[in-house]
Amino acid sequence: MTDSSLRLVWVYPDLLSTYGDQGNVLVVERRARQRRVPVTRIDVRSDQAIPTSGDIYLIGGGEDRPQRLAAERLRRDGGLGRAVENGAIVFSVCAGYQILGHEFVNDLGRPEPGLGLLDVVSVRGEGERCVGDVLADIDPALGLPPLTGFENHQGITHVGQRARPFARTRFGKGNGTGDGTEGAYNDTVFGTYMHGPVMARNPQIADMLIKLALDVKALPPADDQWYEALRAERIAAASQPA
Amino acid sequence: MAGNSEPLSPRAKLAVTAGRAAAAVSRAAGRGSGSVIGGRVALKLDPDLLAALATHLDVVLVSATNGKTTTTRLLAEALRAAGPVVSNALGANMPAGITSALAGGSDARYGVIEVDEKYLAGVARDVNPKAIALLNLSRDQLDRAAETRMLAEKWREGLAGTEAIVIANADDPLITWAASSCPTVVWVAAGQEWKDDAWSCPSCGGVLQRPSEDWFCGKCGFRRPMPTWALSGDHVIDPYGAAWPIHLQLPGRANKSNATVSAAAAAAFGVDPKVALERMYAVQAVAGRYDVVSFLGRDVRLLLAKNPAGWLETFSLIDGPPAPVILSVNARGADGTDTSWLWDVDYTRLAGHPIFVIGDRKLDLAVRLEVAGLQFRVCQDADEAVRSAPAGRIEAIANYTAFQDLRRRVGN
What we know:
The complex is a heterodimer.
Chain A: E1 6-11, H1 22-34, E2 39-44, E3 56-59, H2 64-77, H3 79-85, E4 89-93, H4 95-100, E5 103-105, E6 111-113, E7 120-124, E8 130-138, E9 147-153, E10 155-159, E11 164-171, E12 181-185, E13 189-192, H5 198-201, H6 203-214, H7 225-239
Parallel strand pairs in A: 1-2, 1-3, 3-4, 4-13
Antiparallel strand pairs in A: 5-6, 7-10, 8-9, 8-11, 11-12, 12-13
Helix pairs in contact in A: 1-6
Chain B: H1 10-28, H2 35-45, H3 49-54, E1 58-63, H4 68-79, E2 85-87, H5 95-103, E3 110-114, H6 120-127, E4 131-134, H7 148-159, E5 165-169, H8 173-179, E6 185-189, E7 208-209, E8 216-217, E9 229-232, E10 235-237, E11 243-245, H9 253-267, H10 273-280, E12 292-295, E13 298-304, H11 308-315, E14 325-328, E15 355-358, H12 362-371, E16 377-378, H13 382-388, E17 394-398, H14 400-410
Parallel strand pairs in B: 1-3, 1-4, 2-3, 4-5, 5-6, 6-9, 13-17, 14-15, 14-17, 15-16
Antiparallel strand pairs in B: 7-8, 9-10, 10-11, 12-13
Helix pairs in contact in B: 1-2, 2-5, 4-9, 4-10, 6-7, 7-8, 9-10
């Protein structure tokens, strides 16, 4: 942290906030404040510069054309890459996840360069869209309980050598590669296809990001009653055929 | 069909009769009004039936993400000043339901037709409407629906060159984009509270600038057209600058907006705005929406809100605190099965209200409200919520199937 408050940057809400993923910002902010960590939330519109001094950057899902526009503007801006070099944490969802990789397929059906912050490459699936509840086991190295989320995408994302799959699916498609992987991460950069929003379904991920940013091992407990009830319901729902 | 100059073809007549029979069977089986099944049967027998039924009518189509059912009712009421009207007043807004509604109105001179967004271009091709009213477009059921801008693009292509007078909300950039390919557009400043689906220019992708009520793209120059009609507070301003008071039984800014567009559309049929607006007062509840019912000895107002833009408009019309509020959300097929949109709704607007949460997805709502820092109580059902609510009229806000569940439970 560069000053006394946790700097939470919400990237391009004008383009990448179509599927409720701003819930991730709200959950991280809420859970930090509940632990008496002051938070500065910075919403950056796509005609503004990305600040490089943030602690946690959150990027959401968006429709195909806004995704291309966001990739163009983020490449031109360059701020997110500098922030990652400074050790910032990035957590991205769906269209945002694809943008962090080397390449994805844009709304015009052409390959679009990403930011190369995560060693993944995305193509467009030929089959039906992946839509529905997902249940997955997060990489044990992260020490988190099962992942629950809602996927709604047509992407297929291949995870390269310099990244690890974020989770292995029990139910649902995840990266769409057929090998059961879901999402990807390296040291401080995370990507997932999960909406829900993912932090509302998995507040432990929000806590993990806060701990990484504060460089602490543990946080004071929070009241997780409603989160836990929702998790139990959604995990049961994902395990049942629709 | 009395009053028509040309009778329907034998095939069309057979199709209408068969459709009515199918509808009657469906009704007898207790499966609702049967209008959709009836229309389906009829269209199967004569695919051109919709066009044939519309030939003898002056048709106006109404489409939008929100407010299309209410606007259809308001406009139908206004046009009755000029002659008999047939309308799909129950919201069956796809081709089968529309066909069925038109088949039932043999004496009508005007057809006021609500059309589902996805079908607008096709229905407009079939029925050769005299006017088309376009209210707003915003995110809705994204797990199965087309992307919002894609929908605007489809309208733009499908309506290009239409002979209809298009009455369009100039305050919605996506509506403006969709309508601006049409030769004749009446622009209405009808307002729109929800702005989060139109921050990028529908034309070039630039960032839209939105100083106060205006909007424009700094990059390509696409901008808000100059409106000739406007909603201004409680009045409709007509193209001559005259202000006509809006008196509605329906609450809220959004319904004033619907009334304004309806008045502008009615004018295209020669109905004076004063007459049109006076007639709109007759519209009370629309398919149960806004109805105040008595349940367990309490007054409960039923409010439908299906998507973030709808919730935002609903928050602005409910009684202030300490009016108790019941929220109910389902995620069945007709609602969209993804509840993530709850996080695009600013629930902090409910601060100060006692809040009671029900519905299939009450736990999603509970987490949403917890993160918004609100006090709330999760209840098993409507009965428990109503019994738990403190004194005062209860505002019950529900999404699509949750609203139907609520209506059924309270006997509406």
